[in-house]
Design a protein that fits this description.
alpha/beta; 31% helix; globular
């Protein structure tokens, strides 16, 4: 049975646990696909383990998203938005 490739172009993808180990890796991978898409990351940023590590991952993803989207490019290839209920904030890279 052959697997079909799914196009993610112009899609919105929700990543739960985006500041965790797997969620952060998935978000980084999505941002480097080179297709226009939107990633919405959701994480409670709880203190199950060191929150500083989660904040570091979020910062790294934000930096990656910003570098993957030069300002002079007419269509931004990827955007990422953060939803964090515990921190009561939303951060967005556009």
């Amino acid at each position: 049975m052959a697997l079909e490739r799914v196009s993610l172009e112009n899609k919105t993808i929700l990543v739960t646990g985006a500041a965790g180990f797997i969620g952060a890796a998935l978000t980084e991978r999505l941002l480097t696909l080179g297709v226009p898409l939107r990633v919405v990351g959701l994480d409670s940023l709880n203190d199950y383990y060191d929150v500083r590590l989660k904040e570091y991952r979020l910062q790294r993803i934000e930096t990656l998203a910003a570098s993957a989207c030069p300002d002079d490019q007419p269509v931004r290839p990827a955007t990422v938005s953060w939803l964090s209920p515990a921190a009561a904030r939303t951060r967005s890279i556009m």
